[in-house]
Structure formats: structure tokens, C-alpha cells
Amino acid sequence: MKRSMLKMAAIIFFAVLICGFAGAEPIPQVPVKDMVTMVDIGAKKCIPCKMMAPIMAELEKEYKDRAAVIFIDVWENPNEGRKFGIQTIPTQIFYDKTGKEVWRHVGFLDKKTIVAMLEKLGVK
Q: Could you give the domains of the chain?
């Protein structure tokens, strides 16, 4: 009885482990090598993050192959928040082409300000 319970517990553990990773989106390398990078660190369910989602989608399309525009959900990937030293979401971090962090902003950030920062970093 004890052995079968341990076996069942092991099966459940591995099933949860596999299912948990199967649906997880891979986290891209930040900053992207040799490219200006803007990362928005937040959560899909936080209100200001939801307000930024359509802006991020537009920017990702508009700047494809010219700048990396990345969203990381720290509620789904809590280690990423610690990795970037995030205390409040959303937080946007901008990196220049060399990978150096040049600006960090906490809270909602409008498209006009993001575009101005990308242009300041040399993205046309």
C-alpha cells in the first residue's frame, strides 16, 4: 500500500511538472545582443499592464527587426522579477545596442514616450 502511494505521488508530481512547463512561454534573452531592447516587466492581469498590452503589441510589430520589444509576465515567471530587481509592476527597462541599461521606468508608460526613448537610442 505504501509503495503504491509513493508511486502514485511520483506520477502526479511528474505530470504536474511536465504540464506546468508545457504551456509556459520561453523567456527571451534580455537584452537582445546587438539590438536596442525595451522590456516591459509586468503581469497579464495587472490593470496598468493590461493598458500597456496593446501598445506593446503595436511596438513589437512596428519595430520588428529594428529593436527588441519584449514583455515578461512575472506572475507566471517569478524568478524573472528577482533577476531584474523588480519591486513594482509594470517596470520598463531600456538597453542600448551594447546591452547597457540606460533607463528604467515604473508604472504605465505611453507609446509616445517609448518611441522617443527608442529614437534617442538610435532606432529609426
A: 37-120 (3.40.30.10)
Instruction: Find the catalytic residue in 39, 49, 59, 86.
Output: 49
pLDDT in tens, 110-123: 999 999 999 999 99
Catalytic choice (46, 106, 115, 123)? 46
Residue 49 designated active-site = yes
Collect all residues with Cβ–Cβ distance below 8 Å to 9 and sequence separation of at least 6: none
Q: Tell me the residue type at 4.
A: S
pTM for the model:
0.79
